[in-house]
Write a structure and sequence with these properties.
single chain, N-(1-d-carboxylethyl)-l-norvaline Dehydrogenase, domain 2, Rossmann fold, 3 domains, binds uridine-5'-diphosphate-xylopyranose
């Protein structure tokens, strides 16, 4: 086992908390800092704050041992060799990333720098942020030889964050100085050497002793661009298949077959070609806008990104029209909605296309009964229950007496619902599926009128109509 390194992680959101816990898991001594004392208290008491597989086990294993939680950023800075900044970079009104949290943290770190430290930017930030951090620290009177700033973007997805972190496709280290690059290489050595995967209690995933993840060493600017370009490219793939799905609908073709045929080309690959109601979440919408804004500020034409955004916005409106065309009129209709989270297996509703669609249904005068396995609590804070909007305990209760069932999130549990029971609960057996969770032929056999994305509509098999 390589030497443990003392690491501070600033920010206990998705990226910060997962990184902190995973650094402890690969042997390091971690201090996780958050300026919200309630969050720190909750984490110290073992509450993970977010719904994420493996996080509770790892937190229980290392809490108050190899990982400490505190609000004291200065003390954490002084005690550690590497300081990871993982605070939020929300979208400003112009689409830029708002870097005020990053700047505030950089200034606070500067005040506590005593010996040589490596400051690592892990939040998704525009190119040149590393330079701004360096200047901010120097402006606070810190000698240049006391620190280096590197970029180490994180590619984890919500819902699979812990295994994504410990089994990454690649680790990108953007460092312009050797000492800093070496420290980052040492931090990730348990993964890149494969040592971690030899452990009997290692979190399972795609990497192994024989196939450990590669570490790509780049310049800081390249690393910053890699992160934005990767997210923008994935968002583009989704918008592309959504546009193709519209073409399939117009021609009675089947987008699943088209996506399979495209994805088998190794140059394209099958992932992120699932059509739906558009991408959402805390990253893609914000990062595409920020990347577009970076290009604009540099005087470059990257209109492709505006098109990606426009297709994404259209996709929600098209889905609303699909629901309207299935039900003739919307005012006064009772809709059962399955899914509020921006994707399955998470309780996150930030920029959730599902929540946006619920709001559109309400604005059209529908009443909605919604169910989500994990995101109801968060949605209720945003959209409280009312006469028009109710929350159900499970999918069948949501479906009770509804004019149609609308699927908005790709939760695995929705794909395995008892279709007969669902049909019996609904007033009319109409399912409009924004995530293509069901086989149209099977839905027809179970007596449903079934509309999905980019696939021919299916209608009840004759025997079930008469049944
Ligand atoms: C994303 C990136 O994948 C990750 O690398 C980065 O670190 C953070 O942003 P995340 O936001 O957790 O991760 O979700 P992801 O699984 O990428 O899905 C994003 C959105 O795209 C979701 O709304 C999802 O439903 C949608 N999506 C994804 C599709 O509509 N079709 C697809 O084929 C894939």
């Amino acid at each position: 086992m390589s030497q443990p390194i003392r690491i501070a992680v600033i920010g206990s959101g998705y990226v910060g908390l997962v990184a902190a816990v995973c650094f402890a898991e690969i042997g390091h001594e971690v201090i996780c800092v958050d300026n919200d004392p309630r969050k720190v208290d909750a984490l110290q008491a073992g509450d993970t704050l977010i719904h994420e597989e493996f996080l509770p086990q790892l937190l229980a294993r290392y809490r108050n041992g190899r990982i400490q939680f505190t609000t004291d950023l200065g003390a954490a800075t002084r005690a550690c060799d590497a300081i990871f900044i993982a605070v939020g970079t929300p979208q400003s009104e112009t689409g830029d990333a708002d870097l005020s949290y990053v700047e505030a943290v950089a200034c606070e770190i500067a005040r506590s720098l005593n010996t040589y430290k490596v400051i690592v930017e892990k939040s998704t930030v525009p190119v040149y942020t590393n330079e701004w951090i360096r200047r901010a620290i120097e402006r606070n009177g810190v000698a240049r030889e006391l620190f280096d700033v590197v970029s180490n973007p994180e590619f984890l997805r919500e819902g699979t964050a812990v295994s994504d972190f410990l089994h990454p496709d690649r680790i990108v280290v953007g460092a312009d100085q050797e000492a800093a690059a070496n420290l980052l290489a040492a931090i990730y050595a348990p993964l890149t050497t494969g040592a971690y995967y030899q452990r009997a209690d290692a979190i399972p995933g795609g990497c192994s002793v024989a196939a450990p993840p590669p570490l790509l060493h780049t310049s800081t600017k390249s690393a910053e661009i890699i992160k934005h370009a990767s997210n923008a490219f994935l968002a583009m793939k989704i918008s592309f298949i959504n546009a193709v799905s519209n073409l399939c609908e117009a021609t009675d073709a089947n987008v699943e077959q088209v996506a399979r045929g495209m994805g088998l080309d190794a140059r394209i690959g099958p992932r992120f070609l699932r059509p739906g109601i558009g991408y959402g979440g805390s990253c893609f919408p914000k990062d595409v806008a920020a990347f577009r804004s970076v290009a604009e500020q540099l005087g470059l034409n990257f209109n492709l990104l505006a098109e990606v955004e426009s297709i994404n916005a259209q996709q929600k409106k098209r889905f609303l029209s699909k629901v309207r065309s299935a039900l003739w009129t919307l005012r006064g209709k009772r809709l059962a909605v399955l899914g509020l989270a921006f994707k399955g297996e998470t309780d996150d509703i930030r920029d959730s296309p599902a929540v946006e669609l619920v709001q559109m249904f309400l604005a059209e005068g529908c009443s909605v009964t919604a169910y989500d396995p994990a995101a109801i609590k968060r949605t209720q804070q945003h959209l409280p229950a009312s006469d028009q909007l109710r929350y159900a305990e499970d999918a069948y209760a949501a479906a009770e007496d509804a004019d149609a069932l609308i699927v908005l999130t790709d939760w695995a549990e929705f794909a395995t619902l008892d279709l007969t029971r669902l049909n019996n609960a609904l007033r009319y057996p109409i399912v409009i599926d924004g995530r293509n969770l069901y086989d149209p032929a099977k839905m027809a056999e179970h007596g449903f009128t079934y509309l999905s994305i980019g696939r021919p509509a299916a209608y009840p098999a004759r025997s079930s109509v008469t049944a």
